[in-house]
Specification:
By secondary structure, the chain is an alpha+beta fold. The strands form 2 sheets. The protein has a two-stranded antiparallel ribbon. A two-stranded parallel ribbon has the order 3-4. Helix 3 crosses helix 7 and helix 4 packs across helix 6. The longest helix has 15 residues. It is globular and about 45 Å long.
Length: about 180
């Protein structure tokens, strides 16, 4: 099964926000991904964000760099929060997402630390586990600045991308993917 998450960036350009091709452990994952990108006519990309692949991240990074040598490739863990939308009070979701996205809008490492502190102050009492995970970003604030700048340069909005993914995680297509594995 191939699911694509599409949306408009802040400049109104169509962007691929995510693709669910197959389970990460399947041996055909990489070839399926590249075949899907070729079928879509993707010859290059300004920036590619490899997110949440754990132990497979190095393999994806190496292959992606080989296939798309002119693409700025970033490795991050941004979108984990999308899977937690169901655990957040709907009245809090938009404000929490704004505070989360603000971390990636920072221009300096010091600003990142301040934005993380703001997030923890705002949400730590009610959502301790989420605030703890956000606090992990303080370990490499320069990387957060780099990722945020690259996304901004491409017209990407972190809050919008997380919302697109969160809605996908709550969809029938995602439930089918989990249930059937395809």
């Amino acid at each position: 099964m191939q699911d694509l998450l599409l949306g408009l960036n802040i400049r109104g350009e169509l962007s691929i926000y995510g693709a669910a091709i197959t389970k990460a452990g399947d041996t055909g994952t990489l070839s399926s991904l590249w075949a899907a990108l070729r079928e879509m006519g993707v010859g290059s990309a300004g920036v590619a964000l490899i997110d949440g692949l754990g132990g497979m991240e190095d393999v994806f990074t190496q292959v992606f760099t080989t296939l798309f040598p002119n693409t700025k490739l970033l490795s991050a863990s941004i979108f984990w929060i999308a899977a937690l939308k169901g655990e957040v009070d709907p009245a809090d979701w938009s404000a929490m997402l704004r505070d989360y996205a603000a971390i990636y809008e920072c221009a300096t490492a010091g600003d990142v630390q301040s934005a993380i502190a703001n997030f923890k102050e705002h949400w730590g009492a009610k959502y301790a586990a989420i605030a703890e995970r956000v606090d992990e970003l303080s370990g490499d604030p320069d990387k957060v600045v780099e990722i945020g700048a690259a996304l901004t340069e491409q017209g990407m909005d972190v809050a919008q991308m997380v919302n697109v993914l969160a809605n996908f995680f709550g969809s029938k297509a995602y439930e089918s993917l989990l249930k059937n594995g395809d």
